[in-house]
C-alpha cells in the first residue's frame, strides 16, 4: 500500500491504517470526482504522520496515538487526524476488516509510562547507517 521504505512493523501498520482512513475521508470531503489519489492537504498530513511515526520515542512498542502520553503532533495536524479518525473509523470495517480489528485491539493496550531510550525507528535507522 505505502511505498515508503522508512517504516516497518507496527509503525508501518499504523501509517497504512491512517492512509486507508485518509482515503475514505478525502474522497468524501475534498474531492469532486472519485480519484485514486489523495488531495494535497491529505498527502501533506500523511507525510507529517510518517515523520512523527519515525520519531515516535516508543518505536515498535508505540501505543495508539489517542492513548499516548507524548503529544508530538502540532495542534492543527492533530485536529485534522482526529476528524479523519472520527469520520473514517466506523467506515473502515467493511473495506478493511482485518486492519480495523487489529487497530481496535491496539486501542485496548493500556497507556504506557515514560518512553525508553533509543528505541525510535529513526534512532535505529541511524544506527544501522553507521
Ligand atoms: Zn483530502
Automatic annotation (TrEMBL):
Residues 108-130 are annotated as: Disordered. This is Nitrous oxide-stimulated promoter family protein. InterPro entries: Uncharacterised_YgbA. It holds the Pfam family YgbA_NO.
Amino acid at each position: 500500500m505505502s511505498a515508503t521504505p522508512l517504516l516497518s512493523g507496527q509503525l508501518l501498520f499504523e501509517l497504512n491504517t491512517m492512509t486507508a482512513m485518509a482515503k475514505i475521508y478525502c474522497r468524501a470531503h475534498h474531492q469532486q470526482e472519485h480519484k485514486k489519489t489523495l488531495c494535497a492537504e491529505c498527502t501533506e498530513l500523511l507525510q507529517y504522520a510518517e515523520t512523527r511515526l519515525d520519531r515516535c520515542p516508543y518505536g515498535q512498542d508505540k501505543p495508539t496515538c489517542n492513548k499516548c502520553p507524548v503529544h508530538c503532533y502540532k495542534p492543527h495536524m492533530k485536529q485534522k487526524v482526529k476528524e479523519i479518525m472520527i469520520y473514517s473509523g466506523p467506515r473502515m470495517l467493511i473495506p478493511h476488516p482485518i486492519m480495523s480489528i487489529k487497530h481496535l485491539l491496539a486501542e485496548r493496550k493500556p497507556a504506557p509510562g515514560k518512553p525508553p531510550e533509543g528505541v525510535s525507528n529513526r534512532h535505529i535507522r541511524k544506527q544501522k547507517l553507521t
